[in-house]
Amino acid sequence: MSDSKHPPRRGDLPVSPLQLRDIGLFGALADDVLEHLAQNLKPMRVEPGAFVFKEGEPAREFYVVLDGEMEVMKKSRSGRETRVAILGPNDCFGEMSIIDMQPRSATVRTLGPARLLRVSTEDMDALYRHDLKSYTLIILNIARDLSRRLRVTDGLLADFTASVLDEYVASSAKRA
Question: Angle formed by the axes of helices 121-130 and 31-40, to 10°?
């Protein structure tokens, strides 16, 4: 967490294997693996308005929203921050850091009180050593989610580009 004004508190309620089963990222995992994750992954509470991380910061973990809402902000080249998503329970964010180990690509902050599950690269390494098949399933689920988000973004970009082009053509026709 990067906001010292609102430091996170450890969640007082542990996450259960049943809760993990409802999160798409952990779909198809065996009961013993869900139990292992529930024992090793500790929930944390985050105050309203707290930044979980900021764009450009180093990244070595991702988060799953257990309760609350998160706002994802992205800076343009000119420095203007724009909201690109709102995430809620069972959504994950920051997972690109597990795949590419690059700095954060966006800023994420809470819109209200939130409870998150932090999954670090060390946690993923421990799962890799505990159960390779489950590790692979989680990585595949992350890849599927990233692919889904890319398809949505491609559609939005195509719509935006077509709209700008239509406006350009219409304004050029008026001038002619």
Answer: 150
Which CATH number covers residue 145?
2.60.120.10
Residue 3: inside a domain: no
State the pLDDT at residue 1: 56
Is residue 28 within 8 Å of 133, Cβ to Cβ? no
Residue with tokens 């198809």: 28
Query: Which stretches of 7-105 are assigned E, i.e. beta strand?
Result: 9-10, 43-46, 51-53, 61-67, 70-75, 81-87, 92-93
- The answer to whether residue 14 sits within a structural domain is yes
Q: Residue 47's domain spans which residues?
A: 9-175
The total domain count for the chain is: 1
pLDDT at 126 over 90: yes
User: With b meaning 16 or more CB within 10 Å and e meaning fewer, what string describes 46-71?
Assistant: bbeebbbbbeeeebebbbbbbbbbbb
Instruction: Give, for 143, the enclosing helix (H) or strand (E).
Output: helix 132-175
What is the average pLDDT across 24-32? 92
Asked whether residue 4 is domain-assigned, the answer is no
* Residue 67 contacts residue 22 (beta carbons within 8 Å): no
Asked if residue 102 is part of any domain, the answer here is: yes
